[in-house]
Write a structure and sequence with these properties.
Strand content: 15-25%
Shape: elongated
Number of strands: 6
Number of domains: 2
Number of helices: 5
Order of helices and strands: EEEEEHHEHHH
Distance between the termini: 47 Å
Largest sheet: 3 strands, antiparallel
Helix content: 40-55%
Radius of gyration: 22 Å
Oligomer: single chain
Strand order of the largest sheet: 1-2-3
Structural class: alpha+beta
């Protein structure tokens, strides 16, 4: 690896660690020429996934764009940054697990809303208002009714007792 300080190609790895839930390796390197230390990251190179926009355009999937959209929805909400990162990791993993090289922005929005619903209801409504392009107050009322319905379903699910012994752990 070329040293960013002196451009030497002679270095040694002094530390290696798995990061991002095993999706990357962080390496601390030391240049044998100038003695400076620097960090590199090693990732699996995946073929790019294309996002099919509503107008038919295609653009490369960008994790940062997804992360920023969810951060905006969670702005000034009691949602830790780590939880936002975890959700983005889960969404990205779900997209990759499809094994397809294209996904519609509509499908991404549906996946995001699934995760935001369980994270924070206000963030869910905020995201939905942008994703669904609300035009009037009635559309906000509809999404609020949907949140209430989902909340009630979750309460019923949590109140039910398991039928079988092995369901207690779920």
């Amino acid at each position: 690896m070329k040293c960013p300080f002196c451009n030497s190609l002679e270095d040694k790895v002094v530390d290696s660690r798995l990061v991002r839930d095993g999706k990357a390796i962080r390496r601390r390197r030391e240049c044998l020429e100038c003695g400076q230390r620097y960090t590199t990251y090693e990732y699996i190179e995946q073929s790019p996934i294309l996002v099919i926009k509503r107008d038919g355009r295609r653009e490369e999937f960008q994790r940062e764009k997804l992360l920023n959209g969810i951060r905006q929805a969670c702005h000034k909400r009691p949602v830790p940054a780590e939880q936002v990162e975890e959700i983005v990791d889960k969404i990205e993993a779900e997209i990759l697990a499809r094994g397809e090289n294209e996904i519609s922005s509509v499908d991404i929005g549906i996946i995001v809303m699934k995760y935001l619903h369980t994270l924070d209801e206000v963030a869910y409504v905020r995201f939905a208002s942008v994703y669904r392009e609300f035009k009037d107050v009635e559309e906000f009322e509809d999404i609020l009714k949907e949140v209430e319905r989902l909340r009630n379903l979750e309460a019923v699910k949590n109140a039910q007792l398991p039928i079988f012994e092995d369901e207690k752990s779920n």
